[in-house]
Design brief:
The protein is of the alpha/beta class and 263 residues long. The chain has one domain: Alpha-Beta Barrel (TIM Barrel). It contains nine helices and eight strands. It has an eight-stranded parallel β-sheet. β2, α2 and β3 form a beta-alpha-beta unit. α3 runs parallel beside α4 and α8 crosses α9. The model has no long low-confidence stretch (mean pLDDT 96). It catalyses: D-tyrosyl-tRNA(Tyr) + H2O = D-tyrosine + tRNA(Tyr); a D-aminoacyl-tRNA + H2O = a tRNA + a D-alpha-amino acid + H(+).
Length: 263
């Protein structure tokens, strides 16, 4: 079970969302009490950037990304790429581009999603920043994009966030140099593929995250998720791998620091 001396990094959260407005300070107290030493705040569309930035002023342990989520493609305009680029160059606390990717579970506009994905991947490569990848029911399409960029030597590094694929898909993303991040869904009893992935992922290539406020882990399933709950993700992975809580906390922390150049 959790060990309060272990430090953990929640490598993906969205605490800017309004359902944290009432108690954000208390949420921060709880993550600190659970050993969460750094958080990476993901961005889903550009209008969030000023609020996320001021949150980074408020919480010293927070770093963030800038990007446009595939389901927010309608927020992409002629200025968006330069907005993202300027935001990334303007603040050293921007450590990634994203959350970007493909989602064919909730939408079918593949060509529109690709049209906002490619410029973001190119920007990440240009700025030497990793990408945070949202990929849902779109592993085949995502792998094609990365394989093509890889052939041309211009694929950014990054993480497959909130992993929900199978071992075969995971190996293909790993072969392309990506990290795999496990979220609250690894604690779900019927998540057999995710359990198998957590067991087989190389020690140097996995991260942990909450994706707060979504996907609360057991025993908080159905409630608002928050960064302190990342300990349940660490717990479950340590159970699956037969390694101690502190080993999983330490490895995932080291991996997140390496990928995102975190403090």
């Amino acid at each position: 079970m959790s060990d309060s001396k272990s430090s953990i990094i929640d490598s993906h959260c969205h605490i800017v969302f309004s359902n944290f407005n009432e108690d954000r300070e208390k949420v921060a107290e709880r993550w600190r009490s659970q050993g969460v030493k750094a958080l990476l705040h993901a961005c889903v569309e550009p209008s969030e950037i000023p609020a996320i930035k001021s949150m980074a002023d408020q919480f010293q342990e927070l770093r963030y990304s800038v990007g446009v989520h595939p389901l927010d493609a309608h927020h992409w305009g002629p200025e968006t790429l330069s907005v993202l680029k300027n935001a990334a160059l303007d603040d050293s606390r921007v450590v990634a581009i994203g959350e970007l990717g493909l989602d064919l579970f909730k939408a079918e506009n593949l060509s529109e999603q690709l049209s906002i994905l490619m410029p973001q991947l190119n920007l990440a490569f240009e700025l030497k920043l990793p990408v945070i990848v949202h990929c849902r029911d779109a592993a085949k399409e995502m792998l094609e994009v990365f394989a093509k960029l890889s052939e041309h030597g211009c694929c950014p590094k990054g993480v497959m966030h909130c992993w929900s694929g199978n071992v075969k898909e995971m190996k293909e993303f790993l072969d392309l140099g990506f990290y795999i991040s496990f979220s609250g869904n690894v604690t779900f009893k019927n998540a057999i593929d995710i359990h198998e992935c957590a067991k087989k992922v190389p020690q140097s290539r996995f991260l942990v995250e909450t994706d707060s406020p979504f996907l609360s882990p057991v025993p908080h399933r159905g409630k608002r998720n928050e960064p302190s709950f990342v300990k349940h993700v660490v717990d479950k992975i340590s159970e699956i791998r037969g390694e101690s809580f502190s080993e999983i906390a330490e490895k995932s922390t080291q991996n997140a620091r390496e990928l995102f150049a975190l403090p």
